C-alpha cells in the first residue's frame, strides 16, 4: 500500500454496520487521519447516503489532505463487488437491492468500490494486519453471523456472482441440531457467532446443575463478552462454552485447510476478542482433525488489526486493488 | 488454446497412471495427433523415464509435426506443480520424492510442467471439455480415490504448497462410520470413489435380504461397472447403491458451492461413467441441501472429455498456462 510518488495518497474507508456507520480518511500506510460516525438507522437509504457524504466532506475539510483522494471503499453486509449493489441484506433498515457504489460516487465524485464486510476484513488483514506478505489465508469474521474472506494464490476469491467464501454457512455435525437463519441446519455460524455463543450458553446452563455466575445475569443482558468475563473469572460453565466453541472452530478450520492449503486462518470480529479462550481449544481440535498434509503448516491466529478500526481499514484498502 | 501464428503448435500430454502411462501429441485445438503407451511398473523410476522418453521420441518421429513442440505436460498422482516433484505417491512403484519434471526435461530438452491428476482434469475441462469459457467451476475426479481441481475467477487454485483442492478429504456425516486411507473418518472419498462404491455394495448386501444379481458375483470380481450394469438391468439394490452415492455427492457439492460460488461442478473419472444413475440423485440432494444463494446457479454435469483421452488432454494443456 506504500505510495511512491511525492504526493501522499489517501482513501476513505467506510464500515456500514447494522447500527452505526463509521468512516475515516486513511493514508497509504494504514494510519487513520480523521474519523467520523453517523447512525445507520434512517427511514430512507437516500437520507443515510446524504448524511454519510456530508460527514465525509466534513472530515476532508477538517484535515489538510487537499484533493489527494484515490477513492472510497465501503464494506457492507451482502455487498456485491461486481455489481456495486447491496443485495438482500437482512440486517439493514432499507429495502434491497441498493445501488450503494453509484449512490456515493454520484454524490461525492470519488470512485467508490464496495465489498462484503468479510472480504473487506481479509483485504484489511492483507494490507495492514496479520496477513501482511501472505498469499494464502482465510479470515473468519465472527460477529452477529460468521463470514469469511478467502485469499488464495494472492487473489481474494470472488466467484461467479461475488458470493465466494460463505464458509459460515458450511454445515457440520457438531451443529446438526441448530437451525440457521438461512433455513438450514448445522451451519458453522449457529455455533461460532455471537448468537451461537448465546445459544450454547442457554443449552449448557439448562443441561447442567453446576453453579455458575451466568445464572445471575438476566437473559437479555447476556452477551459473549459477559460469558468471556465469567470464564476469565474462573466460571467453569463459561469456560466450557468457549472450549466447545473453540473446538468447533478448530474442526471447521481443519476442513477449510483442505480447500486452499492456506498459511494462516485468522479470526476477526467481536467473538474473536475472547483470544486464547477460543484459540487454545481451536488449535487442539485443529491438530486432531486436520489431514496430515496440513497438520503443521497452518497458523491459527487472531486479527492483527486494531479492534475498532479493523473494518474501516479493510474498506480503505479497497481502492488500491484495481 | 488456439494458435494465432502460421506455424501450428503442439504439446505432449502424459498421463502417469498406477498401471500404465499414456502419452500423446496434441494440437492447439485438443486433437490427438499420435498416441503411445508404456507400462508404469518398472523397478527404477529412471528406467520408466527412459522408456517414456523413447516412446515420446517415437511418436514425434511417426508424425510430421517437426519441432513445433511448445512443451510437455504431465498429470500424476501427488505431483506438485511448484516443485516439479512427485511427493509421497502411494499408488506408484517408486520411492518418493521424485524430481519428475527435471527428469523428463533433461532427457528430451522440452520444457516440462507437471500437476496432480485432478488439477490436470480441471485444466483439461477448461481447455477442451465441459468448462470451456467458464471462470468458476470445480472438477471432482471420482476414481480409486476422490480428487478435485478448483478454478475460481479464472485461476486454478494451488495454495501455499500446491495442495489446494483436497475436497475428497473433506469429511461428512454421511460417511462418519467409514475409515479413510488417510487415517481419518468420514472423508468424501470413502463413499464416492470406486472403493467407496464397493464398500457401499458390501454394506447394502449385508443389511438387506432382498434378492440381487450382485450376490452372484464373487467379491473380487465386483466393480463399480458391474454394479452400474446391474442397476441399468433393474436390480433394486444396485440402484439403491448409486442413489445413495449420488445423494452423498449432492450434499457434498452443496457445501462446495459455498466456497467459490461456481457456475458448474463437474464429475470426472471412472465412477462418473454411471452418468444419470449418479447425476439424478446428486441433483436432487444438491437442491435440497444447498444455501438459497446458490440454488439455481450451479450446473452439475459430467465431464465433456472423451473417456480414454481426458487425462492426456488435461496434461497437454498445461504448457499453455504460463
Enumerate the spans of chain A where pLDDT stays under 50 for 5 or more consecutive residues.
none
Assembly type: homodimer
Q: Could you say which structural class the secondary elements and strand pairing of chain A correspond to?
A: alpha/beta
Counted beta strands of chain A: 10
Number of DSSP helices of chain A?
Answer: 9
Based on CA inertia axes, which overall geometry of chain A fits? globular
Largest sheet of chain A: 5 strands, mixed
What's the N-to-C terminus distance of chain A?
12 Å
Biggest sheet: strand arrangement of chain A: 3-2-1-4-5
Order of helices and strands of chain A: EEEHEHEHEEEHHHHEHEH
Q: Mean pLDDT of chain A, rounded to whole units? A: 92
Helix content of chain A: 25-40%
Give the SSE layout.
Two copies of one chain form a homodimer.
Chain A: E1 10-16, E2 20-27, E3 32-39, H1 45-62, E4 69-76, H2 100-108, E5 112-116, H3 117-128, E6 137-142, E7 146-152, E8 155-156, H4 189-192, H5 194-207, H6 224-232, H7 236-260, E9 264-268, H8 276-289, E10 299-302, H9 310-316
What are its keywords?
homodimer, 322 residues, alpha/beta, five-stranded mixed sheet, 9 helices, 35% helix, globular
Short description:
The first copy, chain A, has 322 residues and is of the alpha/beta class. The first copy, chain A, is built from 9 helices and 10 strands. Helices cover 35% and strands 19% of the residues of chain A.
How would you describe this structure to a colleague?
2 copies of one chain form a homodimer. Chain A is an alpha/beta fold and 322 residues long. Chain A is 35% helix and 19% strand. Chain A has helices spanning 45-62, 100-108, 117-128, 189-192, 194-207, 224-232, 236-260, 276-289, 310-316, and strands at residues 10-16, 20-27, 32-39, 69-76, 112-116, 137-142, 146-152, 155-156, 264-268, 299-302. In chain A, the strands form 2 sheets. Chain A has a 5-stranded mixed β-sheet with strand order 3-2-1-4-5. In chain A, helix 5 (194-207) packs across helix 7 (236-260) and helix 6 crosses helix 7 (236-260). The longest helix of chain A is centred in the C-terminal third of the chain and has 25 residues, at 236-260. The A-B interface holds A 135-136, 150, 152-153, 155, 157-167, 169-171, 173, 176, 182-184, 255, 258-263, 289, 291-294, 297 and B 135-136, 150, 152-153, 155, 157-167, 169-171, 173, 176, 182-184, 255, 258-263, 289, 291-294, 297.
